[in-house]
Design brief:
122 residues; alpha+beta; Rossmann fold; two-stranded antiparallel ribbon
């Protein structure tokens, strides 16, 4: 989890740098970013619900889309990637998380993930 947080921070810094250099989002149009999500909806044998953490995707997603990037998603099993229900509850008042949950494109990103073999790195 900590590695993922560092990755998200780095991604936000790089995105901000790219936006600062261009002054517009036009330089990022057509550039794609692959989001990797989990397929796990339970923590091991505990049965405790889990999934991807809402603000860890919602906040970078909004920044990246606003900067003109196109996002695609992948998960080990493909299909709908489960969101951690605790993160939905904990961030229910967060305006960006609320926006993410009501945005059709954002929901399509998590509802229709590709499998790794469907990804073409080119």
């Amino acid at each position: 989890m900590l590695r993922f947080l560092y990755f998200c921070q780095l991604l936000c810094v790089l995105m901000h740098s790219a936006q600062s250099e261009s002054g517009t989002t036009q330089n990022n149009m057509g550039k794609k970013i692959l989001v990797i999500l989990t397929s796990a909806d339970k923590m091991g044998d505990t049965g405790k619900p889990t999934g991807w953490y809402l603000p860890e995707l919602a906040h970078p997603y909004k920044d990246l889309v606003d900067a003109g990037f196109e996002l695609d998603s992948v998960s080990p099993k493909g299909g709908k990637a489960p969101v951690d229900p605790g993160s939905v509850k904990d961030f229910a008042a967060d305006p960006i998380c609320q926006w993410f949950q009501s945005d059709a494109k954002a929901q399509a990103l998590v509802d229709n993930t590709k499998t790794p073999d469907q990804i073409n790195p080119r």
